[in-house]
Specification:
single chain, 5-stranded parallel sheet, globular, 52% helix, 189 residues
Length: 189
């Protein structure tokens, strides 16, 4: 009986820990402070991604702030945009953004919108929810497109990486050193 109860408690605690990023924004969201409480994050800055950021901004009641996260060797933005030059893939860009956002002074953004390619949106939003949800930050868009089969596989892989990051502070990139070295070289990180 004690063993079954212990297993049940561990199982319940694990489930709560895994669900925490989705629970906190609902029960304890970051307070909204008037205008500018939304932040549109553009991942890697391709032309289609800036167009997605423009569409998101036009759908919001107040003009949002904008932040570009890109590789140092990536294409500079077509207009002046604050940048975070970190990360060499989606998982490391989202964790760099979460770290940056955690160190911003109050009032912080209550909602973050991810602007990226249509096929990449579901993966990027899920990763941002895992990384930012425990801070009480809502991540949009709410209606995620269905990812392609190749994106679905990457979504599962990167969701596991972000869950590992929440537990250990590492995305597990060290498990694939050749891939990391190639991506870092391509990115200039």
């Amino acid at each position: 009986m004690k063993a079954a109860l212990s297993v049940a408690v561990v199982f319940l605690a694990s489930g709560l820990w895994l669900a925490w990023p989705w629970i906190v924004p609902l029960v304890s969201p970051v307070p909204t402070f008037g205008t500018g409480s939304d932040l549109v994050v553009v991942l890697d800055g391709g032309p289609g991604r800036f167009a997605a950021a423009d569409r998101i901004g036009q759908s919001l009641p107040q003009p949002p702030h904008r932040l570009l996260i890109r590789c140092p060797r990536g294409t500079p933005p077509p207009q002046p945009t604050p940048e975070l030059l970190q990360g060499f893939d989606t998982a490391t860009q989202i964790t760099a953004f979460a770290h940056w956002l955690r160190h911003q002074p109050s009032p912080r953004s209550a909602r973050v919108w991810i602007a990226t390619d249509a096929d990449h949106t579901a993966r990027a939003v899920v990763l941002a929810r895992i990384a930012l949800g425990s801070q009480g930050i809502r991540v949009g868009p709410a209606d995620l497109p269905t990812p392609s089969p190749s994106e679905h596989r990457k979504l599962l892989r990167d969701a596991l990486r972000l869950t590992l990051w929440r537990a250990t502070g590492s995305t597990g990139a060290w498990l694939a050193p050749e891939v990391v070295a190639r991506k870092r070289a391509d990115c200039g990180v």
